[in-house]
Automatic annotation (TrEMBL):
Positions with biased composition (Basic and acidic residues): 226-240
PANTHER family in the cross-refs: ABC TRANSPORTER ABCH.1, IMPORT ATP-BINDING PROTEIN
Record's protein name: ABC transporter ATP-binding protein
Region Disordered, residue ranges: 226-262
Amino acid sequence: MSVTRVALELEAVTKVYGERSPVLALRGVTFSVRKGELVAIVGPSGSGKTTLLHVMGTLERPTGGTVRIDGVDVDRLDDRGLSALRARSIGFVFQQFFLAEHSTVLDNVADGLLYAGVEVRERRRRALAALERVGLADRASARPTQMSGGQRQRVAIARALVGRPAIVLADEPTGNLDSVTGASIIELLHELNAEGATIVVITHDAELAAGLPRQVHVRDGRIVSDSAHDRDLRPGDRTTSRAVGATDGVRVPVGAEQEDRS
Ligand SMILES: Nc1ncnc2c1ncn2[C@@H]1O[C@H](COP(=O)(O)OP(=O)(O)OP(=O)(O)O)[C@@H](O)[C@H]1O
């Protein structure tokens, strides 16, 4: 398989729900996320954010257009192939956490590797490492019911990350949390991104989105602004950063290359 710096790519993606009175939820969405980016998708209720997340995450097929995950055109895959791609390449975090209440925290995270063909001891070893990354290694044997909302969301994030997916998609991850706890989850996403994780966060919270390096605004099923492109349109602005891949390691100020030559 070819190596790509693009984690996810959408080209002219449309999504129509229903037939009799069709709802055009996505009206031609084109954008891409490079490896190592942390992107906020923001927009009002009903603008198409969740539909977009479902299409990006291959939970739903688009009506038209192309979706590529880690270089693979998902249209070429049957449902089984799609499930395998999802298990390998995408981690999901949802507002409602979706943890198994009767399993331990460790097993909840280890279950993120169920379809990765990894034997149980190795699954648990990697799960413990993921819990360490989110600061919850000491709660590995607890049950989700014994934890706060913020801790549960950390467990869900560890589960999403445990398979080292190409991309993590988070749908309103702070929606069920108070603002202080929500801020700590966003801080955690920043830390994980700094360590190399590629993350897309869907939110209707403009303030939360403003703190992330790239904001994509959705309205009526269309992208109406993308801060990455806005920056591209202002090449003279030497203080502006452009997003680069995780393998690049750092964010490069536009124009820095020229300055280095002097
Ligand atoms: N399964 C479905 N069947 C029919 N219409 C749908 C379905 N899912 C979403 N829609 C419609 O598609 C449009 C986009 O919905 P979507 O849930 O993606 O928006 P959203 O921005 O995530 O909204 P919210 O912030 O309220 O969750 C809306 O008009 C919605 O009513």
